[in-house]
Design goal:
With 76 residues, the protein is mostly helical. The chain has a single domain, classed as F1F0 ATP synthase subunit C (F1FO ATP Synthase, Up-down Bundle), CATH 1.20.20. The chain is built from 3 helices and no strands. Helix 1 packs antiparallel against helix 3 and helix 2 packs antiparallel against helix 3. The longest helix is centred in the C-terminal third of the chain and has 31 residues.
Length: 76
């Protein structure tokens, strides 16, 4: 196989990190909303942890996007 084909496949795989981040954020949001609906008075303690978790999940998608862009820039 040509090196450009492998780079293109690698960039395509790197973009799939967005799917994992979306699923992770959805699960975290679901758990957060269930916890707040069960104990509304504890939402003040849980909100910062929720946002840290969402930020970490989103950072994986950003890393995948950056790697895909770097690989695509190697194509030309």
């Amino acid at each position: 196989m040509d090196l450009t084909v492998l780079i293109a496949i690698g960039a395509g795989i790197a973009v799939f990190t967005g799917i994992g981040a979306g699923v992770g954020i959805g699960i975290a949001t679901s758990g957060f909303l269930q916890a707040v609906s069960r104990q509304p008075e504890a939402s003040g303690k849980m909100t910062p942890m929720f946002f840290v978790g969402v930020a970490l999940a989103e950072s994986t998608a950003i890393y995948g996007l950056v790697i895909a862009i770097l690989l695509i820039s190697k194509l030309s």
